[in-house]
Amino acid sequence: MKKDFIYKLCCPFDKQELDLQIFTEDLNDEVREGILICNHCKRYFPIIHGIPIMSPDEYRETDLELPVMKRWANELGSNKVKNFRVLEK
Q: Which element (helix H / strand E) includes 9?
């Protein structure tokens, strides 16, 4: 995902702006892994292999996202995730 693509995205639930946290980039400065976070509803949307996953909650599977979120635990710092939301400590 190109970094400036963030300006074309919004939260699919409440149409608010999303914050981008980048975990890995490729040689062309494109985001390979990261997370998009809506500061209004606190939902997160992972970016995996350069693709933002922005499915509705009812189509998301915690079991599939849990390994990725565990791998990103250090980058998220003290924030925890539950029910597809980022919970701040």
A: none
